């Protein structure tokens, strides 16, 4: 994990950057797949992670006019 781009409690929109990671010297930014709020960060900058590791928990945000949440 190179950088956490959000903190606990942050409201995010689909496409917002969440976490920057590095693999094989290539840096990538993971983005939110939906609108929501970060409820838990499971990693810190500098942590090593494996495929399938939980990085954060995102609670979906549903507005009264939304019929469903897309992921």
Write up what this structure looks like.
A hairpin with a 2-residue loop joins strand 3 (17-23) and strand 4 (26-31). The protein starts with a strand and ends in an 11-residue tail after the last strand. The chain is built from no helices and 6 strands. Helices cover 0% and strands 39% of the residues. A 3-stranded antiparallel β-sheet has the order 1-3-4, with no helix packed on it. A 3-stranded antiparallel β-sheet has the order 2-5-6, with no helix packed on it. By secondary structure, the chain is an all-beta fold.
Summarize the structure.
The protein is mainly β and 71 residues long.
List keywords for this structure.
mainly beta, three-stranded antiparallel beta sheet, 6 strands, single chain, 71 residues
